[in-house]
Each structure stands twice: as structure tokens, then as C-alpha cells.
Amino acid sequence: MAAGTAMSSYWRGVRDGLPFLAVVGPFAMLFGVLATEAGLAVHETMGFSIVVIAGAAQFTALQLLNENAPTLVVIASALAVNLRMAMYSASITPYLGPLPLWKRGIAAYFLVDQTYAQSVLEYERNPDQTTSEKFAYFLGVMTPICPPWYVFTLLGAVLGESIPANLGLDFALPIAFLAMIGPMLRTPAHRIAALVSVVLALAFAWLPFNAGLLVAGLGGMIAGAQAETRLGITP
Amino acid sequence: MTDTTELWTIILALGLGSFGLRFAFLGLVGDRAMPAWVLRHLRYTAVAVIPALVAPLVLWPTATGGEPDATRLAAAAATFAVGYLTKNVFAAMGVGATVLVTLSTLF
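^ inputs. structure came back:
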């Protein structure tokens, strides 16, 4: 019985993760194309997508490699772009923390923007699931997102310059994230958090190393927590 | 272009670093109870980070050299509105993509 419900959670995750394929496919392909154009071999390009598995950080590293930035600067800048992953890790811990260490390791490796946001959205909607159902759901969401990230990187790297790098694909990522924000705004505290974070993100966009994102993220979290306490909202 | 050793140093360092960031809390905190005030802040992580990630991309798209663009703004507004009103991620993405493609073809 337990295995059965975990299985249905997995397939629910696959279904909910599937729309992101429309974003991940073109985005991964774009990375493959640009990496090839920057002079990376196919196995090096794949190394990025499999070892690092983080779109924004990979594009940042590629950009700096093109500019011949020092190795340390490339590493520090791309990791700075990924600092938000530590916030995701903290935020998903109340849900997946009880798992055995190796399963937490697997969840950590596959913790990207889309798997994180979609899973937390689901955990908040259905808080009564068991931890194994939550993990199965996470793996389900990951299935149409992460393996395609490798496959489409490879496709982009192999097809290389025969694909035009500008198909308006740049806006697929913002659309995917915007679509998730609406359903997240469940309470006035969530709406206040989002509003404060947008204002701070725009006001601090000039900060180097993507630091504006961290200021906005922390500011939004504090605003949400304050609103929850002061307005007496039940989460 | 960077030589092979240097490139793999970058790839491995980024891989280890990214995994470290993702594992930081999940691995070390695990099922130990976190204080209520920490949990209260963590509840708003997604809703604080994702809009902050998107806002500059919507207002100053890289593809237009950072100039605000009516087509992208319209697609963004439609995506958000449908997501907010229907609570349906898939419908929001569909409408947003349709608006983007339609307006880019028309203008």
C-alpha cells in the first residue's frame, strides 16, 4: 500500500514537472550551442551540465570563460549566482529532512529552481503526505527536468552552429517562473513577501555578482515573516 | 580559450560548490527541529527568491540589450495574471507563451 501511494506521488510529480520540459529543452540546447561556439569539446560541455547542473551558473561561467577571466573569478562568480540554492536547501529541509542521508544527497543534487519551486508549492498544498510520498513526488518532478537537461545539452553541442542562438528563447525562463508565482501568493504575507522582493531586486540590480538577488531574497523572507506575525496569519 | 586542466578545475569546483550549497541544510540539519522563527522565514523563501530572479529579466531583457520591451512585458503580465487567477501553472505558461509568440509574429 505504502509503495502504491509513493508510486502515484511519483507520477503526479512527473505530470506536474512535464510543462517545464518546454523551458528546459530549449535552455539546455542553447547552453550546448553557446559552449560549442566558445570552443568547448562535447565531453567538456556535458561535464558542465552533468557535474554542475545549474543553468544560470553555467551561462555565467561560459560568459566569463569567453572574456578570459581568471579561473578563481569564474568559480566565485558562478557560485555566487548559485547561492540561492542554499536558501532552497534550507527551505525544503522541513519536508525532506527526515529522509536517510543518501536520499537527501540525491535530492540535493537535483535541487534546481524548477524542482524546488514546484515541490514546495505541492508540499504547501498537501501538507499531509508522508516523507516518502514527498520524496517520490520530488523525483517525479525531477524526471522530465534533469535528464532532459543532459540530453538537450548534448543535442545543442552536437548540432552546434546549425541552430540559430536567438529564437526568443531568452524569455522562456521568465515565463516559466512567472507562471509559478501566481499560485504561490496564497496569503497576504506571501503577497507582501513577493512585492518587497521585487522592489528590492530592481533597486539592487546594480550590485555585482548577482548580490541584488540575495538582498531581495532575504528582504522578502523577512517581510513575509513579519507580515505573518503582525497580521496574525495562519500559514 | 582556456586549457583543458583549467577548464576541468572550473567544472569540478563548480560541481562541488553547487552540491555543497544544495546539501548545506538538507544534509546537515536533516530532521533536527529548527526554531519557529527560522521556519517562519523559510516559508517565504520561494515567494521571495523567484520573483526577485524574474523581475529584472522581465523589465530589462538581455535580448533587447536591457531595453524594456512591450511584447515581453505583455507576455509577462498575461502569464502572471492567469497564474494568479487560475492557480494553474500549466495554463499560465501556455497563455504566456501564446501571447509572446503571437505578438512577436505580429510586430
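The CA atoms of residues 15 and 222 of chain A lie 33 Å apart. Chain A has a mean pLDDT of 88.
thumbs up if we can close this ticket
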